[in-house]
UniProtKB/TrEMBL annotation:
Protein name per UniProt: Uncharacterized protein
Record lineage: Bacteria, Pseudomonadati, Bacteroidota, Sphingobacteriia, Sphingobacteriales
Biological source species: Mucilaginibacter pallidiroseus
Amino acid sequence: MPDHYELSDFVSFEKNNSAGYKGRCSPLQEANIYRWLKAQGFGISAQDDELLIFRRIGEEIRPASVISMKRNFLNFLETARFTGLGNGIDRNNLINWFYDTPPLKRNECFLSCLKEDLSTEESFLMRATCA
């Protein structure tokens, strides 16, 4: 893992009329968020019209949820070192952007970036654990 990240890889801030900043997430930035989540072990598999959301931690695979992805990403925003903070943009702007405009959307980009085929054993384990 890098010791710092480029803020512009995830969000862009524009000054708005009220002397504050408004965060915006382009399609490329949105994909970067999902790729970051994938690097954290999160994945999605479609099995028999069922969407399985999981997280790999080492050799282990566990059920996960979109909520756990959001919490993990929020923790990242709260703790990571970002190049690009400063010049009026601070961590509060970043956290406000997260809450004002939830950056995780269950759309085609979300599915394509996080999609992973599970082995038969992994699929069975996920279904048994989620049941």
